Amino acid sequence: MKITVLGSTGSIGVSTLDVLARHPDRFEVLALSGHRQVDLLADQCRKFRPAYAVVAGAAEAKRLTGLLAAEPGTEILHGPQALETIASLPDADAVMAAIVGAAGLAPTLAAARAGKRVLLANKEALVMAGAVFMAEVRRSGALLLPIDSEHNAVFQSMPHGYSGSMARSGVRRILLTASGGPFRTTPHAQLQTVTPEQAVAHPNWSMGRKISVDSATMMNKGLEVIEAHWLFNAPADRIEVVIHPQSVIHSLVDYIDGSVLAQLGNPDMRTPIAHALNWPQRIDSGVSPLDLFAVGQLNFERPDPVRFPCLELAYRALRAEGNAAAVLNAANEVAVTAFLERRLSFLGIADLIAATLDAVPRQELPDLDAVIEADRQGRDTASELLSRRFGG
Ligand code: NAD
Ligand code: MG
User: Fold this and answer.
1) Which of 135, 326, 331, 333 has the fewest beta carbons under 10 Å from its own?
2) What's the 169 CA to ligand 1 centre distance in angstroms?
3) Angstrom distance (rounded) from CA 129 to CA 226
4) What are the start and end residues of each CATH 1.10.1740.10 domain in the chain?
5) Max CA pair span of the chain
6) What homologous superfamily does CATH list for 2-146?
């Protein structure tokens, strides 16, 4: 199987290459993309010898060409269009979509359009463009497999060949677990002054900076509720969030007969990656076996809507339909960047997103152009509110 890895230099990308390297007989790396992390991408090219490597711009391409001078065989491309090219190569059997944020939408959609096995880590693509994306998957016959650990767990716990109808499958609810992030027990008064360093220090998972902040605000879980809606055709009131601090149960499916099926494992993204890469057959992922005696206890709590308002904002956007989720996602990206650059407080993240949702009028999202326009409107409005009201 030939694989394109979009975002190979990120946390998910590196875990993906780790799994691929364990099965050289089974997988071949066809293309990699690394945006601005040129040194790491050069190392990956030396090791995996892809036919293509994509970086952000001409300067990065020049540097990568220099670094790989002794090893020809990798064609070096740059820019957003090149990402779409490697996502839809006729030779590619599977595409790992592991670019972070809205930047991943166009290439992920290109992979879906080309009918690939799409391994979806880039949840923002689905949050922004769920209807357009799922229509494209249905039209092309692409195989969409979730990498997000919760959705991968739901996928594994759903009936085989799930048709997209919870009612016909006897499914009552989808229960998404959440670790609660680094501030699960932090009092509200202290959240005002938490720093980016504290926010990105996740207790259970090692991840990129953006998703780590999203986990700290619980917007990550909000985005995942929207992601679950599109992946499993689940209405908002059939998706519940359960805080489970050990991150051992990755999510659950509640059936009408009272059965609850779950997927468990150590918190290591190589499990869902290996599962999706070779589905329906299982392969070794390098993840150590779960030691339940070491885990000892599994705990569950209700999310606190006062300390974590982002979760409710995401439900609100999902119920509003149309452009709301794209605006929510755009405002969140602006807010998280501002927080990481110390231009916005931690609690300001939710306030800025709420203010942006209030300010942008509702619209339908019939096609990709409308999605891109909603993203732009969300970003512009959030940036303007940030400088006017939030002092950023
Ligand atoms: P990361 O920040 O570690 O890596 C992001 C990757 O995207 C890098 O390869 C980077 O070079 C590339 N990139 C960044 N900006 C880009 C741009 N403008 N254009 C093209 N490429 C760009 O992020 P990550 O933690 O690996 O997360 C990747 C995606 O997977 C996110 O959507 C995240 O929500 C999702 N995800 C991650 C995890 C995890 O454990 N890390 C779990 C579930 C879902
Ligand atoms: Mg997740």
Assistant:
1) 135
2) 33
3) 11
4) 321-389
5) 63
6) NAD(P)-binding Rossmann-like Domain (3.40.50.720)
